[in-house]
Design brief:
Blueprint (H helix, E strand, L loop, with lengths): L1 H15 L15 E7 L2 E7 L4 E3 H9 L6 E6 L2 E6 L14 E3 L1
Parallel strand pairs: 1-6
Antiparallel strand pairs: 1-2, 2-3, 4-5
């Protein structure tokens, strides 16, 4: 049991190291509740207030503290959002429902 807890903590720490930035959310920050996809690729995010934003807008909002529970990562020259690792796969962005864009 103790080794399992250490493994979970280590995995969360390693996953967190893949983030370039973990912005401090504002008290009224929204959450991402869905992914906007077009042809299988994430184009944007659906927020807890029902609004949708592009991927670029979502990154800017997260950096400004307007979206909570996410960090900013990059692949090549493109930035995107990732859930802050907490040891649970249930709240990863990839586990959220998708809507067509």
């Amino acid at each position: 049991m103790e080794n399992n807890m250490k493994d979970t903590s280590l995995n969360a720490a390693l996953a967190q190291n893949t983030l370039d930035d973990i912005p401090e959310p504002k008290s009224d920050a929204r959450e991402i509740v869905g992914l906007v996809k077009h042809s299988g690729k994430i184009d944007g995010y659906q927020l807890s207030d029902g609004s949708t934003v592009t991927k670029e807008e979502g990154v800017r909002m997260a950096k400004d503290g307007d979206i909570k529970g996410v960090g900013v990562a990059h692949r090549g020259d493109s930035e995107y959002l990732k859930a802050i690792p907490d040891g649970s796969d249930d709240n990863n962005l990839g586990s959220l429902p998708s809507i067509s864009g």
